[in-house]
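User: Earlier you gave me the apo prediction for this protein. Now I'd like the version with 2-oxoglutaric acid bound, so I can compare the two side by side. Same sequence as before, with the ligand SMILES added.
Assistant: Got it. Here's the input I'm using:
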Amino acid sequence: MLLHIPGILDAQQLAQLRQALDAADWTDGRETVGAQGARVKRNLQLPDASPLRQQLAKVVLAALAKHPLYHAAVLPARTLPPRFNRYEGGGHYGFHVDGSVMALPDGAQVRSDVSCTLFLNGPDEYDGGELIVSDTYGEHEVKLPAGDAIVYPSSSLHRVAPVTRGARLASFFWVQSLVRDDGRRRLLFELDTSIQRLTTSGADADAVLRLTGVYHNLLRAWAET
Ligand SMILES: O=C(O)CCC(=O)C(=O)O
Ligand SMILES: [Fe+2]
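And here is the structure of the complex with 2-oxoglutaric acid:
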């Protein structure tokens, strides 16, 4: 499921991140990928070990923790610390698939089920830079307002188009979901959002209660912790 999640960061948080990133020391993004990725990756990143990256990652994680739509869609179990990237002067990232299993700083392993890009500056500030996700329905071009995120299955081939004017700033990260299968996660998301809508529209309370039970029992059946 490819889903646009608006309003992860507010204007104040964006200004804080932006100020820090404008003064940051960037490094070659090829440092964090294997040989396959390095052949097609031309961008900049905050170094993994930099204190700034760790500080800004906390801001992003705290904002995600407060976002109900993000939780409903992703059902996060473990999240890799967010990274930060910058594309400018033709910078791009050709078609690739993200690594399937990655290590947390404490050595624990995380399976990447969901990939996320959180846009940190607006589409008026650069040309190009679309995230293009390829799935069985075709190619989807994504370019979102600052503070908004896109989540998509980590199994998808995807690329970032060259940035031909200005600079594109983003945070990106991977999540192991409680529900590994994208189709099942989508069904749960549809059920959850429908239950929320029925609740706010004053639908029959007993029917809503039973549907809520179905949601939790499906999640119980499918969740892996
Ligand atoms: O910059 C983006 O939107 C995505 C980056 C990406 O695909 C990656 O680093 O694996
Ligand atoms: Fe990627």
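For your comparison, keep in mind: The chain has a mean pLDDT of 97.
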